[in-house]
Write a structure and sequence with these properties.
Layout (H helix, E strand, L loop, with lengths): L3 E12 L2 E12 L3 E5 L6 H8 L7 E6 L2 E2 L5 H6 L2 E4 L11 H13 L13 H13 L15 H14 L4 E5 L7 H14 L4 E5 L3 H7 L2 E6 L2 E6 L1 H5 L2 H6 L3 H8 L2
Parallel strand pairs: 3-8, 3-9, 6-7, 7-8
Antiparallel strand pairs: 1-2, 1-4, 4-5, 9-10
Length: about 260
């Protein structure tokens, strides 16, 4: 089995002649945390939408475990084990924390929407759901209604529901967006701990998080790859520093 779990070749997405993503070659190493960064409008979220097939590429190829998945539908992509969490917390607010995770487990069994099934059929999933909650530090909140959770803990729950679907590749879209410093640190540590034995590709704006947990960083600018490598190499690249001129430049420097 190759060390490359996900590869894109000349991945391109054009909207009415404007290239939002242009000839992107990406190689994600199995078992790594790979961050996709870049200024606003660099094409990061478009890239994620192409990988999960929420958008169809104009041209180029997407390979997962060496197989061409370029023309597959979102449901097929998910069944292969590519599971995405969204920028905005995607959990059911009026279900309990435990029920949210259990629903994720039901999806992996293919019974997610069998709401008429007896509660008894769901009991075998409960032990696994509690294990996942313990993994993300939410075991004490199992019976809490999700709407009552603070924002940082909602994101932790979202990671638990993503894990419930047994992803081979987790795509995390801005996992620390909108968080205070303490929550950012907690979620970064959580991502690091759940990455063991998994591969994570994340879009992230917080340079401190990226410098702390990412093995490889790909910098996008205007839809194209500007630089790639470990944080020390990327952050000292003059082209990257120029792309981040202004407020984010200070972030790049400060995260050293």
């Amino acid at each position: 089995m190759s060390d490359i779990i996900l590869e894109t070749r000349k991945l391109t997405k054009e909207f009415k002649g404007f290239a939002a993503v242009s000839d992107v070659d990406l190689s994600v190493v199995r078992g790594s945390i790979h961050a996709l960064i870049g200024p606003n409008g660099a094409g990061k979220t478009t890239c994620f939408n192409l990988l999960t097939k929420f958008l169809e590429p104009t041209s180029g190829t997407i390979l997962f475990n060496g197989q061409d998945i370029t023309r597959e539908r979102p449901a097929q992509i998910a069944r292969r084990g590519i599971i995405r969490s969204f920028q905005i917390s995607a959990v059911f607010p009026h279900l309990s924390v435990l029920e949210n995770v259990r629903l994720g487990l039901q999806r992996s069994l293919g019974t997610a929407y069998h709401f008429w099934k007896s509660e008894k059929t769901l009991r075998p999933l409960e032990a696994r759901a509690r294990e996942l909650l313990a993994q993300v530090g939410l075991e004490d909140a199992a019976d809490e209604q999700t709407v009552n959770l603070p924002y940082g803990r909602k994101r932790a729950l979202e990671i638990a529901t993503t894990l419930a679907m047994e992803p081979e590749l987790m795509l995390l879209d801005e996992p620390t967006q909108g968080m205070g410093h303490e929550d950012v640190h907690r979620v970064a540590e959580l991502i690091k701990s759940v990455s063991v034995g998994r591969t994570i590709l994340m879009v992230e704006h917080n340079m401190n998080v990226v410098s702390d947990i990412a093995d490889t960083i790909t910098v996008l600018q205007r839809g194209a790859v500007l630089a790639e490598g470990p944080y020390d190499k990327v952050s000292s690249d003059p082209r990257v520093m120029e792309a981040y001129m202004g407020t984010t430049d200070a972030q790049l420097e400060g995260a050293h």
